[in-house]
Structures are given as structure tokens and as C-alpha cells.
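Morning!

This is the sequence you dropped in the shared folder:
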Amino acid sequence: MKKWRPFATMPEQYIGLKEMINKKAEVAQPVLTEEQMEQINFTLIEALHTNKQVYLTYYKQGECITETGFIQFVDSLGNLFIFIDDVFELKNKMRLSELIDVRLA
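The structure's back. C-alpha cells below.
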């Protein structure tokens, strides 16, 4: 451990390396077709009315994240929806434009 101690005096280097690694792992937001957006809207409305659990895949800060939960509210004109997380039961307000895929569980 003493051998590597001089390298630990430059924490900026570790921060810079971590940022470079994170930037390489970033993914560009996928562009959806009209058909895919219609399918997402149809699935959201079906999940809302039947109160079924859904798998949501959305884009956030360079990552594609998948979560499970329930849809509570959908506002197509306002471009948002409210999603209740299955794990922590938290309400998440999200934009419809962030959605990549929605599937019924």
C-alpha cells in the first residue's frame, strides 16, 4: 500500500479518469418512429385502465434505464405521465419523450 501512496495525492486525476470512463459509456437517445410512439401510448393507456404492472425503459443522462411499476396518470397534451415505482413505491413524474419502450408485465 505504501508503494501506491504517491499516486493518491492527485485526486483530480481519479475524478478526471472516472469522468472519461462515464463519458465513453454514454448512449445516444434513440429516435422513435411514429408507429413505436403510438404503440407506447396504447400500452400506457391500457396499463392505466387495467392497472397492470409495466416494464418501462427510458433514457436519462446518457443511460437506458428499465424499471417496473404502475402507471397512475397520463397527460398526452402535457407530454408527461406519473409512474409508481414497484420497489420503493415512489411517484415519478416523467416526460413521454424520455420513454423508449413500455411493455406489460
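Headline: The longest strand covers residues 63-75.

More detail when I'm at my desk.
O.
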